[in-house]
Design goal:
eight-stranded mixed sheet; alpha/beta; 7 helices
Length: 282
């Protein structure tokens, strides 16, 4: 199994993974969950893709074995400390969790102080095709270099990453299962994003569980209901659960939006979803 290595300037990356929180995520709250690496192997990695290496982070049980792969897809702030901690949480549950930095070709989000600037200067320029190709490469790398399971692979994503889970599940029908936390399902079409999740919901083959918030100011319940209606037309078994009384980013323990009860409930639902579709942790 490959050991974590320092990131090299010979890659095309714009910067290393941040060891803290993105500037735009401040002020950071005191709710932060810190998961240690006891019993784990974890660290920064370089993930080979078709046109260069991208940075990433992984965590897995230290005990030898081929563990189910969980690709952790970041939100607007990239693979910062929170996403790295999420990887360690999945590793503690018996998975090989790996988080690729998916914005790196378009810019370094850690340098920006405003979410709007991150979207306009970086995220809006990231093509869905590029993201899907990088996720393919990430799973391939996890299997070949980190001893990931040869067939079992899931994806979990948050906000921007939640939308990316829907998109990737459509792109890769061999994905075992997905968890999409409060990702936009419509209203995002552009030259770089030709389809919204709602456009292909009825055609999905991969079972995706959507975890949404009743009081999300950026994603209406009407939008969620339209996605639910499309999913019911599919054969995927995909579902959406709306957690009551909480807002967007309820899982982000470093932000004021965090809701401990909702985050813990979503974790339980996600673990049950992976088990239901044959991907239990070790």
């Amino acid at each position: 199994m490959e050991k974590p290595t320092p990131l090299s300037r010979r890659t095309f990356i714009l910067g290393m993974l941040t060891t803290g929180y993105a500037l735009a995520a401040t002020p950071v709250q005191d709710n932060i969950i810190k998961t240690d690496t006891a019993g784990l192997t974890a660290g920064a990695i370089q993930i080979p893709t078709a046109n260069g290496k991208i940075p990433g982070y992984y965590a897995r049980p230290a005990k030898p074995g081929r563990y189910p792969v969980v690709v952790v897809i970041h939100e607007a702030f990239g693979v910062h400390e929170h996403i790295q901690d999420v990887c360690r949480r999945y590793a503690k549950a018996g998975y090989l969790a790996i988080a690729p930095e998916l914005f790196v070709r378009q810019g370094d989000v850690t340098k920006h102080t405003e979410v709007a600037t991150i979207f306009n200067e970086v995220i809006s320029k990231v093509p869905d095709d590029q993201v899907n190709a990088d996720l393919d490469a990430t799973i391939d790398y996890a299997r070949k270099s980190l001893q990931g399971h040869k067939t079992l692979a899931g994806a979990v994503g948050y906000c921007w990453g939640g939308r990316a889970v829907w998109e990737y599940a459509y792109h890769n029908p061999k994905l075992t299962a997905g968890l999409a936390y409060y990702g936009r399902v419509e209203g995002m079409v552009s030259d770089e994003r030709p389809l919204d999740p709602i456009d292909f919901g009825s055609e999905l083959k991969v079972p995706v569980l959507g975890l949404y918030a009743e009081k999300d100011a950026s994603i209406s319940l009407e939008s969620v209901a339209r996605m639910q209606a499309e999913l019911k037309k599919s054969t995927s078994g995909s579902e959406i659960i709306v957690l009551p009384g909480v807002g967007h980013a309820f899982n982000a323990d470093y932000r004021a939006n965090y809701n401990k009860a909702a985050a813990e409930k979503a974790w339980e639902l996600g673990m049950a979803w992976f088990r239901k579709y044959g991907m239990p942790g070790a």
